Amino acid sequence: MEILHSIVVIVHLIGFATLFGGWLVEAVGKHRITKIMHWGLVIALVAGLALSAPWGLDDPNYAKIGTKLVVVIVIGALLGIGSARQKRNGSVPAPLFWGIGILTVVNVALAILW
Description:
By secondary structure, the protein is mainly alpha-helical.
C-alpha cells in the first residue's frame, strides 16, 4: 500500500509540474492560458483527491488537505477566467496570469513542506 501511495504522490507532483511547466513556457512568451495547464491541474487535482482518501498509513492532515483544495480551486478559477478573457480579448491580464504561477508554487510548497 505504501508503494501505491508513493506512486500517487509522484503523479500529484507531476500534475503540478505540468501546470507549472506550461505556465513557465508562457511566462517567457505571450502570457497565454494553454490546454496543458488545464490538464496539469486536472492531474494534480485527481491525484490529490486520491491522496486524501484514507490509506491506513497514518492519520490524514485535514487542515493540509483543505488548504490545498482551496488553493487548487482558486487556481482552477483563475485558469477558467483567464481562458474566457483570452478568448474574448486575445490576452490574459498580467495579475491573473502571475497569480496562477504563484499559487501553483504555493501549492507545491504546501505539499512538500507541510
